[in-house]
Amino acid sequence: MLHLGPGLNDARKRVLAWIVELVLGGCVLGTAFAERPPHRTNEANAGKSKAAESNVTFNRDIAPIIFTSCASCHRPGEAAPFSLLTYEDVKRHARQIAEVTRTRNMPPWLPEPQELKFADEMRLSETQIDLIQKWMDQGAAEGDLADRPAQPKFTEGWRLGTPDLVLKAEQPLILPPEGTDTYWNFVFSLPIEKTRWVRAVEIRPGDKRYVHHANILVDREEQSRRREAAPGAGFGGMEIRLESQVFDPDSHLLFWKPGTVPYIEPEGMELRLDKGTDLVLNTHLQPSGKTEVIQPSIGLYFASHPATKVPMLLQLENDAKLDIPAGQNDFLLTDHFTLPVDVDLLAIYPHAHYLGKDIQAFAVLPDGTRKTLIHIPRWNLNWQAVYRYAQPVLLPQGTTVSLRYVYDNSEENPLNPNHPPARVKSGNRSSDEMCHLWLQVLPVNFDPTQGDPRMLLQEALALHNLEKNPADFEAHYNLAAMLQAKGRLDRAIEQYEAALRLRPNDAVANNAMASALLAVGRPDEAAPYLETALKARPDYFDAHYNLGNALASKSDFEGASKQFLLALEARPSDANAEASLGSALAEMGKFAEAKSHFEHALQIDPGNTLAKENLTELQREMNQR
Amino acid sequence: MGNFLSLFIGSLLASVFVAGLPLAAAQTQQTAFDLDGRAVDPLAQGTNRIVVLMFLRSDCPISSRYAPVIQQISARYQHDTSFFLVYPDKNQSPQSIRNYLAEYGYALPALRDPEHVLVKQAHAEITPEAAVFDLERKLVYHGRIDNWYVEFGSSRPAPTTHELSDAIQAAMKGKPVAKNAVKGVGCYISDLD
Fold first, then answer.
1. Which domain holds residue A142?
2. How confident is the model at residue B73 (pLDDT cuts 50, 70, 90)?
3. Same domain, A431 and A335
4. Which among A105, A290, A419 is the nearest to B152, CB-wise?
5. Whole-angstrom distance, CA of residue A399 vs CA of residue A402
6. Residues A447 and A545 in one domain
7. Is residue A103 in a domain?
8. Domains and CATH numbers, chain B
9. Quick one: A322 and A431 in the same domain?
10. Are residues A331 and A457 located together in one domain of the fold?
11. Considering A303, A321, A351, which residue would you say is the last residue of a domain?
12. Of A236, A417, B68, B160, which has the highest C-beta tally within 10 A?
């Protein structure tokens, strides 16, 4: 007799992670200075200046500041609306520069100085700001040519050289001349045949003057394509959310803002991209006064080796309590999460919309030490950013990480989307609010034999979220997935049940519930969940595949083969589905057909065990007859 | 007649410049110019319409973002007002202004004000700022168009006050303008000196 092989009884354990979602936001102005200092440091220049004793001149005192802190954006082809490369350029904006540096609107850098340093800090010193002020007051003199530093040299085109793969948006977005800000998602399918590891991603967001931010989301489930009206058309939306059904939490912050220098991932922390993965570029665009054509591209730089260290994004949030009365100018939200494992904190990404006022995150270590992780006293969505620490910050197990956000929903907040102010709750539209904080962490000092520390983090986070909000669907789902991964199937089933009470028709949760039931040998109970999943999403590969398995385990091979065929319609070259279809057909005595499906499975994946074993078995069976 | 005179002045200025004398020598002849180089005094037009001067810099992003708003306001009051776009940058060529107008879809008359004659008459400091002259050519309002921008890098989702429209309406009715000067947010004209 043919055995059904691992594929048929091993339901696809669609584990975890609803995690992910990234964000975008913002609006306003197109002015942007800044970037990474090319050669010298700001302080060194300020210190060298003899401005205190004599007149301030451009060549001696101001050019070093401008060239270091402004010119990388204020040059042709970059995000800033005008260049600041010559005395004439700077003189034409002298008073404006004095004003925007004094108010610290430029260079755009929101965090206060703190003990834990960020990489690529763009903050001017008080000395530098005073110098610019003085220069303007004294008449903005050019000074002695001999004092002028060399003009900065910038790399043209791709900053990291020619990428290994360039993806260009299939269709541009036509940005209307006026109106509110536009949030648009471009979907890029990856023309790769095998898994690649990416050490750097360079985002070229189109005309940089009109793109305020861009974020890349990794879509491993083809979810974004389904939102496009036509392939390549893209789709609107400020905050998008992607589900990940295998335990593969998003772990990289792929962010662009004006002045961003492409980030090269640390050795060993490369990003995995598989065949069939899509990249989604979530962009925030601002009308310019005329029609603009925005067609972004993405350059990928591959590594020759797979990643050895996998970080994870932890999200603190308190959206459930986000309900700000109209007129309140000091609405406070907090969230506190205690780390179950040691981690290195690599980067931080706070996110609120237009009512955010004072944004803070801090950590209290087990020994009681309090460290400010970030403090933005004057939040501005327009300049939101990912902040990477200059050095990884070790946060030992037992550290409590907290967010503390204050919102201003009064008339005094000019960015208030409502005039007059109205009650605001959490939501994905820019007129809704958010209370999110992402921490990119790398678990350290763990015992690899005790399992994946990211799972401990995920489980602790799900439990924490359920404490805050027992009606948190995603937390129930994630907790169930973690329990399922640990083999705690009965408890997993309880949590899936709780999730399904909140969203009875959710395709993914129904499928996951069924996979847990199949795993404990309850196929009769699994089938109705799969039918619900398929009603919600008729082309859901996993549900067809799992239903095929459920039916096969009840010896309904005809029903099973139908489901495997439907699965293959949803995902035409899946070796497991081909092999399973072959197995079901073989059970029905349709040997010739079965053989061709086993062979097809092996064409797709020569290592497919189920197809290999069953093909051998089938040939033996056919020879006996 | 007026046209001949201004052409003459125009060529005189050019020859003074070629001779290498400082431009200041011609200051008594200060005027604004249209894009063909003819001297134009927008305030010397017939007195049956309110005159609105709109000061712009093409290298000022806030100026540019206001293009649709300026066109909507000028269209709304086209029967009662004469709108002029005024470019105070002495280094900007008529051709580059023409290109800019085409890019942003402007059909309004544009003037160059290299000597800041109109800037002074209108007390303009920032681009974009507007100046409204009533039928008697008295400056009744100068300053921002509305309160869309709060400061650099910060704009409201939509303006909640509309100073320019209010001023035009008041001038149309011959009533005093409530606020006759409100500083704008944008780029300083004095940076062009």
1. 42-147
2. very high
3. yes
4. A105
5. 10
6. no
7. yes
8. 1-30 (no CATH), 40-192 (3.40.30.10)
9. yes
10. yes
11. A303
12. A417
- Asked if the Cβ–Cβ distance from B152 to A99 is below 8 Å, we say yes
HEC-encoded secondary structure of A313-343: EEEEECHHHCEECCCCCCEEEEEEEECCCCE
Q: Say which of A94, A290, A419 has its CB closest to residue B191.
A: A94
With H, G, I as helix, E, B as strand and everything else as coil, classify residue A404.
Answer: strand
Buried b (16+ CB within 10 A) or exposed e, A362-391: bbbeeeeeebebbbbeebbbbbbbbbbbee
Contact A209 B67 (CB under 8 A): no
CB contact under 8 A, B154 and A177: no
Looking at this predicted complex, what is its ipTM? 0.81
Beta-strand runs (E) in chain B:
32-34, 39-40, 50-55, 81-87, 110-112, 126-127, 129-133, 139-143, 149-151, 154-155, 181-182, 187-188
Contact criterion met (CB < 8 Å) for B61 and A81: yes
B8: pLDDT strictly greater than 50: no
CB atoms near residue A246 (< 10 Å): 15
CA A428 to chain centre: 15
pTM: 0.82
Would the pLDDT of A39 be above 50? no
Which token pair is A397? 């197990």
Other Cβ atoms less than 10 A from the Cβ of A171: the count is: 13
Residue of chain A with shortest Cα separation from B72: A178
Task: Find where tokens 């401005």 sit.
Answer: A51
The model's pLDDT over A143-196, given as tens digits with 9 standing for 90+, comes to 999 999 988 888 888 889 999 999 999 999 999 998 888 899 999 999 999 999
**Residue B33: exposure state from Cβ atoms within 10 A (0-12, 13-18, ≥19):** buried
Query: Does any domain span residue A529?
Result: yes
